[in-house]
Amino acid sequence: MNQRYWDKLAKSFSKDVIELAKEDRNGVLLEELDKLASRRKTVTDLGCGPGILIPELVKRFRSVCAVDFSKKLLAVAAQRYPDPKVTFLQADLTQPIEPDSPSDVTVCSSVLILASRKKRRRVMESIVRFTRKGGTVIVTVPSLESCIHVYQTLVRLRKELGGNNGMSRPEARRQLAAELPSVLDGNVSIRGVLTKHWMQDEITQHIADAGLTVERVRRVDFSWESEIDAAPDWLGAPFPWDWMIVARR
Ligand SMILES: C[S@@+](CC[C@H](N)C(=O)[O-])C[C@H]1O[C@@H](n2cnc3c(N)ncnc32)[C@H](O)[C@@H]1O
Fold it and tell me: Sheet holding 131-142: strands in order across?
């Protein structure tokens, strides 16, 4: 998942990548932003991609700094959201960059997904550097528990509906083992690309280890359609989810 990988996705991003802000069925991310909103506060969106969050941040904060290492994704974001309140910064978060001035609020959505532990640790260090002391960090990451829950639900669908619905248990076992070669590492292969998925305690510990104080952990629920083709309407909670952590520096 290097810069070229993300540059190549610039044209098809909305089709090929789950954009959390769009999928959040209960609006918990916006709810957390509402709690922090202030005309006096600055916000940084680390790993902003094509900038889906930018209009929501512009509404709630004094200024927005949108950071990404993909030139092409930043160009898409800058073209979509040309606003004098927004500055765009091309930077690699695995490098020890120092922001001009750390922000009151830092959002980092679906960026701590790199398979490399070392790179994830460095991104985490950047999250801290971009946030002023006493400031707030909102991080979202894919959930490993949710990934397993989706497979268990596929098995349930086969049992309840029969036919080609869902998956047989042996099929699900095989496919999950292929997608998740090591539960310990938590890297899930998504279209052949290893993507880190986190257990709740694991991401909480990771954030605490970076010196932040975790205030809340919440689930960002998605629709079943985002995970299962032709999911039946009656398939309800627990929905697939990402973890969202709100922490203070
Ligand atoms: C899955 S997308 C998430 C985009 C957006 N935050 C969202 O939630 O829809 C991951 C983003 O992180 C950026 N990214 C990944 N590694 C990065 C790094 N080392 N430095 C800066 N940006 C990075 C990618 O270019 C991409 O835009």
Answer: 86-90, 61-68, 38-46, 103-109, 131-142, 241-248, 213-221
